[in-house]
Amino acid sequence: MALSAEYKAGIEAILNLSRATLSDATEARDWRDVLAHSAEPMDSGERGRLEASAQLKNSSRQRMRSRGHCFSSASPMTE
User: Fold this and answer.
1) Cα(18)–Cα(78) distance, rounded to whole angstroms?
2) Please, what is the angle between helix 25-38 and helix 5-16, to 10°?
3) How far is the C-alpha of 66 from the C-alpha of 54, rounded, in Å?
4) How far is CA 77 from CA 23, 24, 38, 48, in A?
């Protein structure tokens, strides 16, 4: 099963754009359109890799927080 280019573009935007860009609806939509235009549909294997990557990122965050680490807004691991 392949997902649409628009869906993949939305995922790519969330994973790669800054909070400031995602907070601006016009900017986020423009970037989503650019990414959708250049994207190929996502297959189930790629979906699985993205899901595994998100789970790893979340578990890394939890481990670091349990050790007392704080995340600044400039950190690539911010929520």
Assistant:
1) 10
2) 120
3) 18
4) 17, 20, 26, 20
In a domain, 38, yes or no: yes
Hey, what are 51's tokens? Answer: 């899901």
Q: Model confidence over 22-51: pLDDT tens digits? A: 999 999 889 888 888 876 666 677 778 878
pLDDT digits (tens, 9 = 90+) for 68-78: 766 554 445 44
The number of residues in the chain equals 79
What is the DSSP annotation of the chain? --B-HHHHHHHHHHHHS-HHHHHSHHHHHHHHHHHHHH--PBPHHHHHHHHHHHHHHHHHHHHHHHTT----TTSTT--
Query: Is residue 17 included in any domain, yes or no?
Result: yes
Number of domain units in the chain = 1
Q: Which amino acid is at 62?
A: Q
Q: Is pTM, for the whole model, over 0.70?
A: no
